[in-house]
Amino acid sequence: MKRIDIYRTSPELYDAMMALSSASAKDVDVELGELIKIRASQINHCAFCLDMHTRDARKHGVSEQKLDVLAAWEEAAQLFTERERAALALTEAITELGDGHVPDEVYQRAARVFSERELGQLIALAVTINAWNRINVAARVQPPGRR
Predict the structure, then answer these.
(1) Domain with 21 in it: what CATH number?
(2) Carboxymuconolactone decarboxylase-like domain: from which residue to which, for each copy (predicted)?
(3) What's the domain range around 110?
């Protein structure tokens, strides 16, 4: 079944999401931001965002090894910094909300290694990529064809 071209039919949605994306990424390390976006997109099965953000991550210097094991980052913890591990744990908790909340220990782990400003931005970034993922998955937005 063909889905709507949501960004064509609702351009104000696209504009609002772009504004939110820009605001949430402000002052976030670009490589860390890409890891957050990719991890949430893996969980949400958003092919469009995975395609976009893995390419962006490579452009910004994220190693192929990190990208290769990101879905199992806890098993390859030595490849990721403490800040990356805390951000990824927080991203997963925000994305999955299995118990209806972000566990205190996950939040505290992130709060120990990020300033309040950084923590707020990371939360906003994780929420924003989740919104993009859900819109794209619902509308079945596809990645561009083979390059």
Answers:
(1) 1.20.1290.10
(2) 11-92
(3) 11-138
What's the half-sphere exposure (Cβ side, CA atoms, 13 Å) at 74?
6
pLDDT, tens only, 52-106: 999 999 999 999 999 999 999 999 989 999 999 999 999 999 999 877 899 999 9
Q: Please indicate, yes or no, whether the overall pTM of this predicted structure exceeds 0.85.
A: yes
Q: What's the pLDDT tens digit per position in 78-89?
A: 999 999 999 999
Asked whether residue 147 is domain-assigned, the answer is: no
Write out the two tokens for 59.
């452009």
- Distance (Å, rounded) from C-alpha 104 to C-alpha 106? 5
Q: What is the DSSP string of the chain?
A: -PPP-HHHH-HHHHHHHHHHHHHHHTTS-HHHHHHHHHHHHHHHT-HHHHHHHHHHHHHTT--HHHHHHGGGTTTTGGGS-HHHHHHHHHHHHHHH-TTSS--HHHHHHHHHHS-HHHHHHHHHHHHHHHHHHHHHHHTTPPPPPP-
Amino acid at 71: A
